[in-house]
Specification:
Pfam family, one: CHAD
Oligomer: single chain
Largest sheet: 2 strands, antiparallel
Mean pLDDT: 89
Number of helices: 16
InterPro entries: CHAD_dom, CHAD_dom_sf, His_PPase_superfam
Radius of gyration: 26 Å
Number of strands: 2
Distance between the termini: 47 Å
CATH superfamily of the largest domain: CHAD domain
CATH topology of the largest domain: CHAD domain
Helix content: 55-70%
Low-confidence stretches: 1-10
Domain CHAD: 120-389
CATH architecture of the largest domain: Alpha solenoid
Number of domains: 3
Strand content: under 5%
Strand order of the largest sheet: 1-2
Protein name: CHAD domain-containing protein
């Protein structure tokens, strides 16, 4: 609500609430006549029913709304001096908010459905359908990312961006294609712009969990860590909003969608065969096993991170031809999860250590948290060092 009303404090307006039985209506004409009465207030908030509210909004606005779901909010700016001057198309929509942009669970019930093509036998049709679906999801998630109320929107938005790029990289690995390479560079830039915001979202969720633990609670609350990192998060969100509002962002997304329907994409996707994927998988598995064997307790965090990125490349390459729910894929995802936990701990430690250094904070609870996170990080590194190499990774399509 505050997002919609320019951060206005609605609690201060409760004394102006009025109830009128005549406005308990489904007819927009009743609302129109009431609104056109002469009055001195400059702003009115109407709470009512459809179709009356939707019809009223569409009569006033020069950009009609396709729908106004239950609990949705819309703000109109009227280009008139007096309420009696009310006329069709005299307003413009300045803000809009619907539940599916605020709550990811609500969005999930109405999200774009996967097309049947993602299960097609032909690789070209399947790959194109998968990337089109991911493009649809990126567009559908963007309003929720803009609102910023539920961090799951950002998580899913980032996931679909990176997955699209990874599938494209898998194609590029099988055949050099300059147009595809240009598109992937743009997708990489879009995904990188979400990186720190996602890290801060995860940190804020963990801070709420840590505040529930007695050993950390007092220090975290007294130091106002949640508030400090919320400010950082809000700065990152504002920067992302500016990016999403840019012409360059829209051109990149439109260009990617158009590329999926192009001959250049078809040329790249036709290079995907079971043999070509197996050859590429063999290369990645050999590199994975070599890197894993070279890791030691003294290896820098960056070496672990590079191995994590290699696992992602392997997974998305395999998903072109392998059943994502198959046994080998499940094992690969479990390995990825371990690397993901290590990466989260690494980032969280960096943020908290930086805060401690900048503020000279010496609270025992914060020192305890840093020590526990460091111990957990060491444990994750040791678990990775104990992993067995993949060895042979023979593709079984399982479709």
């Amino acid at each position: 609500m505050r997002f919609l009303l320019d951060h206005a404090d609605l609690a201060d307006r409760t004394h102006t609430v009025q109830y009128d039985d005549d406005l308990y209506t489904f007819d927009a004409d009743d609302l129109w006549h009431w609104l056109a009465e002469d009055r001195t207030v400059e702003e009115i908030t109407l709470v009512g029913h459809n179709p009356a509210l939707l019809d009223l909004a569409n009569r006033l606005a020069n950009e009609p709304l396709p729908a106004l779901p239950t609990c949705a909010l819309v703000r109109l700016r009227l280009r008139i001096d007096r309420w009696a001057e009310l006329a069709p198309c005299c307003a413009s929509i300045t803000h809009q908010l619907i539940p599916a942009w605020v709550d990811y669970k609500t969005f999930k019930k109405r999200r774009p459905l996967k097309p049947k093509g993602v299960h097609a036998h032909k690789l070209l049709k399947r790959t194109r359908a998968l990337l089109r679906y991911q493009s649809d999801m990126i567009g559908a998630l963007e309003p929720g990312v803009r609102v910023g109320a539920d961090p799951e929107f950002m998580h899913q938005y980032r996931t679909h961006l990176r997955r699209s790029r990874s599938v494209g990289q898998a194609l590029l690995r099988l055949q050099r294609n300059k147009p595809l390479k240009r598109q992937l560079k743009a997708l990489k830039n879009e995904a990188q712009a979400t990186s720190e915001l996602r890290d801060l979202d995860v940190l804020l969720m963990r801070l709420r969990d840590w505040e529930k633990e007695t050993v950390y609670r007092k220090a975290l609350i007294e130091l106002k860590l949640f508030d400090a990192f919320t400010l950082k998060r809000n700065d990152q969100h504002q920067a992302l909003l500016e990016r999403l509002n840019s012409q360059q962002h829209r051109e990149r997304m439109d260009s990617w969608r158009a590329f999926l329907d192009s001959a250049d994409f078809e040329k790249a996707a036709k290079a995907v065969t079971l043999k070509s994927v197996q050859d590429a998988v063999d290369e990645l598995v050999a590199e994975h096993d070599r890197r894993l064997e070279s890791l030691t307790e003294a290896s820098p965090d960056g070496d672990f991170h590079e191995l994590r990125k290699l696992l992602k490349k392997l997974r998305y390459l395999l998903e072109l031809v392998v059943d994502p729910k198959g046994r080998r894929m499940k094992a690969l995802k479990q390995r990825q999860k371990r690397f993901g936990q290590l990466q989260d701990l690494t980032v969280q430690l960096q943020y908290l250590q930086s805060f401690q250094e900048q503020t000279k904070a010496a609270k025992p609870g914060l020192r305890k948290l840093l020590k526990d996170l460091s111990t957990a990080k060491t444990r994750e590194r040791q678990a990775i060092l104990a992993m067995d190499p993949f060895g042979d990774f023979v593709i079984d399509p399982g479709r």
